[in-house]
Write a sequence for this structure.
């Protein structure tokens, strides 16, 4: 379905109003200036949980509403507009997806209701190097009897400081670069030997490096088969990519709307600068790119909901096209605003910084181009 | 909305009708050409045209009272699925179906709809479009071809240019000046028989070596008054409205088509593989970019079509026209580049048929950003009508 249903339209209105009134970009600025470790405000996260958004993916039996990815995308688009700081995406989409797709019944019962209510934050710890490379997992997991010992380091884990538990991709066998030999474990962040290092990044979102020094967990903490976790990891990552692309769509749309407003209101040479074709045509081109990328994002979310065979390809398409479009839009947002766009007092910089962070997360444009074209036998 | 039970019933009916009426000789064997755009079919292809057009299923969603199928969009979707499953096809098309017919449905009198629509639906009339003139391209409203009001008829003098298919066309619809003192409120939308005395058609040879476009000259052409669509001097709005359907048509058809000789095929043949991947990594990335753009375009065309079915054609469609032109042109450029010096052939035995064809297609694609409203005009339209910017 390319058109929103009634329920989704109502949720869109609710989310748009809430973000505008309760979590606009000015709220993000306040949060940034506090320099807190978790990089969001508990009050904002509490309000989101009261709205029930934490349970959008989670079935009713585990305390959620089970509305699906396209519906979640509608909300993420709005929080993306406000650059709203919260663990909603990392926990209620990525963490919940991992558990829904791979956890045992006991694990689901233990964690999903808490994710839905917002009382626990569960996030994914996958990358270790400077680039997204899910098959290049090196963090070692040594299985002995029914216990597993983890050693290694994860880098730039989203909401890593706020997390109560991590879904950790670890290597149980094989070499770095092998798809076989990767396993996923749920690790609580209070486990002895687990150390978190807060990272301060340009986009001011919550990230941490996580060091594992002889962290011992039970084999019951495994999602999917030991050694056979890559397929699950890839599926979870696809959900994350499509969800993040939905958030980026909101960020891009807001950057566009603000720039368009400026084109209409900024007067130079006695006329609104938007009346100059050099600028008007650029605005129309950005509009075009946003529309093209939007179709990809919506198609990817629908593909996850409908378990389509081309889901993975569409998720790469969505992440790449949205990334390209957001990249260009945020650059031009600064350029079109001129000097004011360069100041910290003005919000344009927030959009630029958020854009680059989102682009690199779960695979940048180059990663997804390579992944997409590998389907065509070249 | 049609209920799913109704759709199931319709699916059975459609399948049965296709089984009874679609000639077996044509199964997965579509003849070249389009009825209503230059092709006069014979034999079974003609029989199928008569049956399909007679049933109204060449235009499944047009109202039945004018000979259309009278189907809901959902039922039309079912019909299309059933036709595909049976190896059947719709070979009736052209400007009448893509643009003139939908415009008539929106603006014409009952009498005019009864007169023009049935032959369009049957594919009996090939319509061409008289819009551009030598002095009126992007600024179309500056057109000068004059239709002088002679009381019981118009007398037309002037010329049109870039008229697709005019050489074979039976009729023309177009915009003509009926008042020289008012640029926009001095244009009328008029149809004329291409066999009328004083109509002369001259093909234009293009850089591709082909002549899809023509010049059309009018010298004292007599056109009956009843051929006026809408009111006199009020034709500009109709002319513009028709262009929305043109862009919608591009959106609808633009995602499809293309030969099986695609970019990855050309890359394998002309560049070669290094193990599992293309030997040229830069080219591989560029092909990826191109294919992803095409994928995003096809998804957007589908989305805009779904939205248009609910809300009617939108000015935002102009953006899709620009995206389509860019996608096509970039694709053809990349194809020629992949082919290397094999992408330079013009004619003769030194090059194979595919190679020669690609050179012509590449050159033809240069018109994509000019025809149907240039990129610059479409960007102006979007800036003004969709984004609400002033000064366009």
């Amino acid at each position: 379905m390319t058109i929103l249903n009634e329920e989704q339209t109502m949720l869109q209105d609710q989310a748009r109003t809430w973000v505008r009134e309760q979590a606009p970009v000015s709220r993000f600025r306040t949060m940034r200036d506090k320099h807190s470790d978790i990089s969001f405000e508990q009050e904002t996260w509490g309000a989101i949980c009261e709205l029930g958004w934490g349970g959008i993916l989670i079935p009713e039996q585990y305390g959620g509403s089970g509305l699906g990815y396209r519906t979640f995308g509608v909300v993420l688009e709005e929080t993306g507009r406000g650059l709203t700081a919260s663990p909603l995406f990392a926990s209620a989409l990525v963490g919940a997806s991992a558990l829904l797709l791979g956890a045992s019944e006991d694990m689901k019962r233990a964690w999903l209701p808490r994710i839905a209510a917002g009382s626990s934050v569960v996030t994914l710890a996958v990358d270790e190097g400077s680039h997204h490379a899910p098959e290049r997992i090196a963090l070692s997991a040594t299985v002995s009897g029914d216990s597993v010992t983890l050693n290694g380091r994860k880098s730039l884990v989203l909401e890593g400081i706020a997390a109560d538990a991590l879904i950790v991709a670890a290597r149980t066998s094989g070499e770095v670069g092998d798809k076989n030999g990767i396993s996923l474990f749920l690790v609580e962040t209070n486990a002895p030997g687990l150390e978190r290092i807060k990272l301060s990044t340009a986009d001011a979102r919550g990230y941490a490096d996580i060091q594992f020094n002889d962290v011992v967990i039970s084999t019951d903490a495994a999602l999917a088969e030991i050694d056979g976790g890559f397929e699950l990891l890839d599926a979870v990552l696809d959900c994350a990519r499509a969800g993040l692309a939905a958030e980026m769509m909101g960020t891009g749309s807001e950057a566009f709307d603000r720039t368009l407003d400026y084109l209409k209101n900024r007067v130079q040479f006695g006329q609104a600068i938007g009346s100059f074709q050099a600028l008007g045509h650029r605005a129309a081109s950005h509009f075009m790119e946003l529309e093209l990328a939007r179709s990809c994002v919506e198609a990817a979310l629908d593909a996850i909901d409908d378990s389509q065979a081309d889901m993975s390809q569409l998720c790469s398409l969505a992440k790449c096209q949205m990334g390209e479009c957001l990249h260009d839009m945020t650059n031009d947002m600064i350029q079109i605003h001129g000097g004011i766009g360069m100041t910290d007092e003005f919000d344009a910089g927030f959009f630029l910084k958020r854009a680059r962070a989102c682009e690199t997360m779960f695979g940048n444009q180059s990663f997804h181009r390579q992944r997409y074209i590998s389907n065509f036998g070249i | 909305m049609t209920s799913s039970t109704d759709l199931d019933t319709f699916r059975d009916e459609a399948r049965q009708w296709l089984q009874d009426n679609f000639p077996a000789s044509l199964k997965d064997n579509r003849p070249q050409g389009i009825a209503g755009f230059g092709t006069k079919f014979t034999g079974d292809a003609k029989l199928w045209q008569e049956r399909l057009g007679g049933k109204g299923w060449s235009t499944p969603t047009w109202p039945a009272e004018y000979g259309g199928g009278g189907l809901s969009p959902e039922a039309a979707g079912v019909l299309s699925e059933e036709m595909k499953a049976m190896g059947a096809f719709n070979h009736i098309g052209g400007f009448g179906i893509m643009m003139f017919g939908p415009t008539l449905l929106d603006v014409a009198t009952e009498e005019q709809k009864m007169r023009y629509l049935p032959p369009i639906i049957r594919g009996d009339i090939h319509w061409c479009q008289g819009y551009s003139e030598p002095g009126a391209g992007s600024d179309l409203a500056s057109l000068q071809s004059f239709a002088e009001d002679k009381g019981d008829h118009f007398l037309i003098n002037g010329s049109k240019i870039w008229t697709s298919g005019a050489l074979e066309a039976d009729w023309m619809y177009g915009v003509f000046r009926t008042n020289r003192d008012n640029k926009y409120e001095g244009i009328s939308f008029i149809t004329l028989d291409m066999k009328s005395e004083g109509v002369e058609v001259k093909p234009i040879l293009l850089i591709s070596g082909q002549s899809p476009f023509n010049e059309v000259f009018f010298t004292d052409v007599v056109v009956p008054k009843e051929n006026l669509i809408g009111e006199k001097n009020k034709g500009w709005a109709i002319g513009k409205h028709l262009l929305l359907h043109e862009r919608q048509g591009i959106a609808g058809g633009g995602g499809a088509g293309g030969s099986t000789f695609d970019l990855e095929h050309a890359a394998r043949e002309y560049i070669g593989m290094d193990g599992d991947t293309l030997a040229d990594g830069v080219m591989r990335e560029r092909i990826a970019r191109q294919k992803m753009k095409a994928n995003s375009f096809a998804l957007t065309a589908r989305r805009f079509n779904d939205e248009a079915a609910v809300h009617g054609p939108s000015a935002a469609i102009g953006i899709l026209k620009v995206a389509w032109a860019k996608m096509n042109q970039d694709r053809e450029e990349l194809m020629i580049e992949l082919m290397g010096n094999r992408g330079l052939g013009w004619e003769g035995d030194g090059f194979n048929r595919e190679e020669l064809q690609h050179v012509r297609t590449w050159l033809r694609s240069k018109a994509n950003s000019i025809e149907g409203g240039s990129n610059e005009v479409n960007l102006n339209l979007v800036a003004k009508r969709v984004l609400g910017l002033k000064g366009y």
